[in-house]
């Protein structure tokens, strides 16, 4: 495998120097702090990432105050108390994106969050206690037990909560392949995801960097060279 410092140097050169690259890495993630996130904010973030999948993120962000109103502040207990008519009426509610399948996922994820919260003293605590070197295992759990939380949606959900998550984007996967990792061009199998996890863990141990930073550096080291300004707008930072 290529030395990670070479990958970082290439990313820095593409972005205009080490200082610029460092400014694009974002704040340090804090898995322990995720324990303090309340269940309503967990469910809100889940729903936002589900609705943003395959959609223009900015549109979802602009409409989100309406989502918060329509979904009763994303309080799991309150949502689970609502009758079927409440959920049916949401499919005609102009405050939100009226996608029946994604609306249904909020109801299902409210039950998911409530169940895990009861078992662990809060869904945030459950996430904070999950080993940071086993994101792939956590992704599999979210995909199996949650609704529409598989693939990149689950990864972005963790990232938005400031859990130390890597994102297997096209550029990130291309950088790993370029560095010598034997994975598919579009890695989705457990075999490939385990290889990615192991390599990210190795680089995290060698460099002391959060896994999120390693992921971002990989993505910025290859592919279309987006400007720092475009990346900051995309990341909302």
Automatic annotation (TrEMBL):
Keywords: Glycosidase, Hydrolase
Protein name stated in the entry: DNA-3-methyladenine glycosylase
A GO molecular function held by the record: DNA-3-methyladenine glycosylase activity
Record-linked Pfam families: Adenine_glyco
Tree of life domain: Bacteria
Keyword Hydrolase recorded: yes
EC number: 3.2.2.20
Protein biosynthesis among keywords: no
InterPro entries xrefs: Adenine_glyco, DNA-3mA_glycosylase, DNA_glycosylase
């Amino acid at each position: 495998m290529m030395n990670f410092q070479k990958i970082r140097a290439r990313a820095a050169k593409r972005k205009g120097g080490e200082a610029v690259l460092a400014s694009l890495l974002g704040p340090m993630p804090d898995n322990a702090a995720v324990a303090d996130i309340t269940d309503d904010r967990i469910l809100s973030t889940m729903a936002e990432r589900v609705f943003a999948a395959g959609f223009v993120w900015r549109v979802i962000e602009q409409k989100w105050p309406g989502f918060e109103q329509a979904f009763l502040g994303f309080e799991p207990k309150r949502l689970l108390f609502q009758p079927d008519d409440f959920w049916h009426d949401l499919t005609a509610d102009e405050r939100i994106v009226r996608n029946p399948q994604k609306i249904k996922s909020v109801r299902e994820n409210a039950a998911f969050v409530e169940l895990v919260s009861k078992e662990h003293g809060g869904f945030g605590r459950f996430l904070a206690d999950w080993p940071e070197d086993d994101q792939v295992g956590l992704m599999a759990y979210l995909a199996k037990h949650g609704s529409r939380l598989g693939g990149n949606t689950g990864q972005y959900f963790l990232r938005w909560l400031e859990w130390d998550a890597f994102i297997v984007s096209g550029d990130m996967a291309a950088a790993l392949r370029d560095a010598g990792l034997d994975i598919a061009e579009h890695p989705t199998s457990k075999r490939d995801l385990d290889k990615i996890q192991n390599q990210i863990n190795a680089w995290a141990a060698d460099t002391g960097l959060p896994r999120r930073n390693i992921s971002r550096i990989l993505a910025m080291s290859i592919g279309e060279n987006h400007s720092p300004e475009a990346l900051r707008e995309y990341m909302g930072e």
